[in-house]
What we know:
Elements (H helix, E strand, L loop, with lengths): L6 E5 L4 H10 L3 E5 L10 H14 L11 E6 L7 H4 L7 E4 L5 H11 L2 E8 L17 E6 L14 H4 L8 E3 L8 H7 L4 E4 L4 E3 L2 E2 L1 H12 L5
Parallel strand pairs: 1-2, 1-8, 2-3, 3-4, 4-5, 5-6, 6-7, 7-8
Antiparallel strand pairs: 9-10
The chain binds ligand LGQLAAA5.
Ligand LGQLAAA5 binds next to strand 2, strand 6 and strand 8.
EC number: 5.3.1.24
Protein name: N-(5'-phosphoribosyl)anthranilate isomerase
Pathway: Amino-acid biosynthesis; L-tryptophan biosynthesis; L-tryptophan from chorismate: step 3/5
Amino acid sequence: xxxxxxxxxxxxxxxxxxxxxxxxxxxxxxxxxxxxxxxxxxxxxxxxxxxxxxxxxxxxxxxxxxxxxxxxxxxxxxxxxxxxxxxxxxxxxxxxxxxxxxxxxxxxxxxxxxxxxxxxxxxxxxxxxxxxxxxxxxxxxxxxxxxxxxxxxxxxxxxxxxxxxxxxxxxxxxxxxxxxxxxxxxxxxxxxxxxxxxxxxxxxxxxxxxxxxxxxxxxxxxxxxx
Length: 226
Ligand SMILES: O=C(O)c1ccccc1N[C@@H]1O[C@H](COP(=O)(O)O)[C@@H](O)[C@H]1O
């Protein structure tokens, strides 16, 4: 049976030139961090420039299903932040990386008018049982490793064995320590719809090593026949 190649998101960019280069290398999405306190935080007034730079690097220069799209990463946003997260600011998706309940996700979906992904930070295998409740409320789930005192961008991995039987009723992305050195093992054992990579590709927080990004794109594209 043919194996579908997962989509690839490169997260935590801060420089427009990197957004252009990474879209041109063939990433399916880029992520921009809107979580204050993160070393990858980008203030609201700089985000549109990053997504516009990404669009300039798209192979076809026209948005289509196969083109690179923008993801804005937030965590437990308050109502005073909704304006900066809403549609029309260059991103197609808002990734909710905090402790957002199903009800809060439903409300945010109504108020933001963008596609939503819910990140679950997985501390134990039982945490995976929370996934199904988000079906029909968000477009996709993203699994990341739980770490004390940090929301994301930690480089820590979820044990693969916990995920081998994970079949949520919606698309799912795998994050946490994804890089060119780990992708073969991941895709040999798991079938996520997408992979999300950040700190394993970095020279320093927010600055990617483009050689490592290219190696990851090649490894993911070489992983399947679909
Ligand atoms: O990257 C950050 O600094 C960050 C801060 C707050 C919430 C999420 C964040 N990043 C997300 O973390 C995962 C995994 O990153 P890594 O590959 O393990 O470094 C990814 O989904 C980022 O979107």
